[in-house]
Amino acid sequence: MPAGKPTWQDYATWLGAFLVPFSFFFPRPHPPATPSHGYSREGPTPPGSSLPLTRTMTQHYLTLALVLFLIGILGIVVNRKNLIILLMSIELMLLSLNFCFIISTVLLDDIMGQVFALYVLVVAAAESAIGLSILVAYYRVRGTISVQYLNLLRG
Questions:
Q1: What HEC string does 65-100 produce?
Q2: CATH number of the domain enclosing 116
Q3: What is the pTM of this model?
Q4: Is the dihedral of CA 75, 79, 83, 85 positive or negative?
Q5: Which tens digits make up the pLDDT trace of 71-122?
Q6: What residue numbers bound the domain in which 79 lies?
Q7: What total number of domains does the chain contain?
């Protein structure tokens, strides 16, 4: 793109990139649902095709993801003493984020949500491994993993 005033195509691209995470809120035409036996009024169902997600199913899945995220926040807010439960709450919040990515992948027929979910899983695994190794080393030195004594790690 030459240095200068952006064109209307640039603005449309930027707007589209901004609206992609919110696009599952907007209706989209789906093919008609077929029975599970593989035959519909139009003829046999092609192999590999599946039933589309309906708006009600999507709302249920997003509600489940929201409930998981809120349970994770509740675990962080309520429990301030046990580091293992804090790490588990963070993992639960990352799980709900992955769930939202997978839902958007199914709704948009795009693989990018699965790629993002894989990246989040890798980050969560690294966070768990590093966090638990720090906790084990701290427990060996201090004899406790209480949150109130973590400021002793500084020096």
A1: HHHHHHHHHHHHHHCCCEHHHHHHHHHHHHHHHHHH
A2: 1.10.287.3510
A3: 0.60
A4: negative
A5: 999 999 998 788 888 888 999 999 999 999 898 888 887 888 888 899 999 9
A6: 53-155
A7: 1
